[in-house]
What we know:
Blueprint: H1 2-15, H2 17-33, H3 38-48, E1 54-59, E2 62-67, H4 74-81, H5 102-108, E3 111-116, E4 119-124
Helix pairs in contact: 1-2, 2-5, 3-5
Protein name: Sacsin/Nov domain-containing protein
Organism: Subsaximicrobium wynnwilliamsii
Domain Sacsin/Nov: 63-118
Amino acid sequence: MIENLRKEFIQEAKAAPKLFKDLAKVEQYIAESYKTRALIELMQNADDAEASKFGIHSFNNGFIVGNNGKPFTQNDVEALCRSGSSNKHRGGETIGYRGIGFKSVVNIANVVNIISGNFKFSFERKKRYKHLII
């Protein structure tokens, strides 16, 4: 599924490169605006997933954040990978609904590994533009 999403995003970028570039700038602005909120966003996501436990383990060059909330669905993974996409709704029972908070985490880390339910994938700063030579 992750590989299919990646291919779909690349096709979308190639089909509308100017729009993709504009969206990338907006996403970068949002991520920079939220950069001091990364930990708060992770805590809010855990709360939205109805977690009863949340933990942080730090080590030399990074940290691990975990919770025991509901695992990601396929729709959750796709929303996480898209800009401004969320399965949460304004006025609902969740804190987040804009689909932008997690971008603050990706913006401050070189690598973000995600393991949730049957999904295991990562966002890597160095690979971010590797496939987007249009």
